[in-house]
Amino acid sequence: MGHIHKVTPLTENKHLNMYAIDATSKIGTPVHYFVSSRAESTEGLKLVTGKNHPDGVVIYSLYGEKKDRVVLVRQYRYTIDDYIYEFPAGLVEPGENYREAGIREMKEETGLDFEPFKVDKAYEKPFFTTIGMTDESCATVYGYACGTPSKCGLEDSEELEIVLADREEVKRILREEKVAIICAYMLMHFLHEEEEPFGFLQEEL
């Protein structure tokens, strides 16, 4: 196992920072590594705290009387200078429960009312996103959305379309569009569980 000797903050931003790590590998050779993090200081890094609190929340929600559509956003991202399909998502604010964050973010991004339901903790605990680059982790909340889509709650920096996709549209999206990987895997599951997409959540692990 490697050993970390020093962590140096390189930026001072509100939502995302870069840190330099000086370490040695398992055989004692020097290692210089960089990590991005939602932490605003070195003390908040997960490699320091040893805790895995959710930085963000991802919302997997079904829509419609028959629960046969899934709520997506088609969002412009500067990282690829293009649009990509994702689940509604956002950061968990200090002191906020991630389920509460899911309700708030769904309303802000889509105008829809979201009702999460409780599942086994193993299904919604925070999982890491891109561990080779960042210590960010996100919890997933599952539930049902209703209401009329609206973009009134968006910030000026957010550029997205609200998509209520049925299975045919999901097939097209997976074939033809850019899709975030977490969203893509869930959409594949949605396609093949027509009777009860959330049936797997009823089981305890």
TrEMBL record:
<keyword id="KW-0378">Hydrolase</keyword>
<dbReference type="GO" id="GO:0006753">
    <property type="term" value="P:nucleoside phosphate metabolic process"/>
</dbReference>
<feature type="domain" description="Nudix hydrolase">
    <location>
        <begin position="50"/>
        <end position="187"/>
    </location>
</feature>
<dbReference type="Pfam" id="PF00293">
    <property type="entry name" value="NUDIX"/>
</dbReference>
<dbReference type="InterPro" id="IPR015797">
    <property type="entry name" value="NUDIX_hydrolase-like_dom_sf"/>
</dbReference>
<dbReference type="GO" id="GO:0019693">
    <property type="term" value="P:ribose phosphate metabolic process"/>
</dbReference>
<dbReference type="GO" id="GO:0016787">
    <property type="term" value="F:hydrolase activity"/>
</dbReference>
<dbReference type="InterPro" id="IPR000086">
    <property type="entry name" value="NUDIX_hydrolase_dom"/>
</dbReference>
<dbReference type="InterPro" id="IPR020476">
    <property type="entry name" value="Nudix_hydrolase"/>
</dbReference>
<protein>
    <submittedName>
        <fullName>ADP-ribose pyrophosphatase</fullName>
    </submittedName>
</protein>
